[in-house]
Specification:
The protein is of the alpha/beta class. It contains five helices and eight strands.
């Protein structure tokens, strides 16, 4: 499985709470739902659907998993929701126990074992291991060199601070732009892959 990261992201690199005002107020973040004015079905919606269609499983950090687990099961009957609900899911957590995993098909990955378990999953076939949101987890995956593709839905907005997916460890990581599509609202959907060593 390829590890594919799919993120709604602002021009200044913020991924926090794109979907709603109460999604994540950590640090006093006051701009929840900032992606809504830029959403369109043709470009942004299609990118999201394409990511989920290519997924063989979903990988989340604890907070994002809890947000998704609270939303998707009640939408059963919608084809997209049914796909989200039926996919195998993995949550990296040091606090949730197996009894907390109420969203069907969820397996817990203890935080200290996430690197080894993700590497095991990468060696399996069966579609992409898709990560959405989960900024702390994504930073860890990027730091460990475990990301095969980065799909950024870049919105033309500055948020002035908030959670980021990018490591701040001084490491140099070169990416190759594989594709780019621009919506009428100025959203750029850019797909990157790690560049070959030496480039």
């Amino acid at each position: 499985m390829r590890v594919v990261i799919s993120e709604f992201i602002s021009l200044d690199g913020v991924v926090q709470a794109p979907g709603g005002a109460e999604e994540d107020r950590d640090g006093g973040f006051a701009h929840g739902g900032w992606s809504h004015p830029f959403f369109d079905a043709e470009v942004v919606g299609a990118s999201f659907s394409e990511s989920v269609d290519g997924a063989g499983a979903l990988l989340f950090g604890r907070r994002t998993w809890q947000t998704m687990a609270a939303a998707w099961p009640e939408r059963a009957g919608d084809p997209f929701a049914d796909r989200m609900n039926s996919l195998p899911k993995y949550v990296v957590t040091g606090t949730l126990g197996d009894a907390d995993l109420t969203w069907n098909n969820t397996e817990r990955i203890p935080g200290e074992k996430f690197t080894a378990r993700v590497q095991e999953l990468r060696e399996q076939g069966g579609g992409d291991l898709l990560v959405m949101g989960s900024p702390t987890l994504v930073r860890g995956l990027l730091s460990e060199g475990l990301v095969d593709e980065l799909r950024l839905v870049i919105m033309p907005v500055l948020l002035g601070g908030g959670k980021s997916i990018f490591p701040e460890d001084g490491g140099l990581r070169t990416l190759e732009l594989v594709s780019a599509v621009t919506s009428g609202a100025g959203v750029q959907v850019c797909t990157y892959r790690p560049a070959a060593k030496g480039r």
